[in-house]
Design brief:
With 136 residues, this protein is α/β, with parallel strands linked by helices. It has 4 helices and 7 strands, in the order βαβαββααβββ. Strand 6 and strand 7 form a beta hairpin.
């Protein structure tokens, strides 16, 4: 599915559609260059899921946990700074991915070899008229 979003406001219906089309998907991998909008789209997804926390990029923490109004967890990963597989083991990544909670992963290509296959892959690309989202 390919969708063009001209503004951030266009992401709301995309998040709703994505989560309603794939209700059992829990692990989402986000690909795209720096600044293309991965964190912004994840923020919209988290709020659509009922997150009550402030959604921020986990660039330095590698993982952020957000709670929903139902006290469910949503995990947001940023593997940009991962250099060795041991760093992922140190944060206990397997516990998160197999918890049944939503897991949103930025820079999943940095986790090749140890990350599970995502349920959905979202590629974001800047275009002249906005952002192209390709959802697989």
């Amino acid at each position: 599915m390919k969708i063009v979003c001209k503004t951030e406001n266009d992401l709301d219906p995309v998040a709703e559609k994505l989560l309603s089309i794939y209700p059992s998907s829990r692990v989402f991998a986000f690909y795209g260059t720096m600044g293309v909008g991965k964190t912004t789209f994840i923020k919209v997804l988290c709020y659509y899921l009922g997150a009550v926390d402030i959604i921020q990029s986990p660039s330095f923490a590698i993982i952020n946990e957000y709670k929903t109004h139902l006290c469910e967890s949503i995990y947001h990963f940023d593997f940009y700074r991962i250099k060795k597989i041991e760093e992922a083991f140190d944060i206990g990544y397997e516990d998160y991915f197999y918890s049944g909670s939503y897991c949103f992963i930025e820079w999943p290509d940095k986790g090749k070899g140890f990350l599970p296959e995502p349920d959905r892959v979202i590629s974001l690309k800047a275009q002249e008229l906005g952002r192209l989202l390709n959802i697989e």
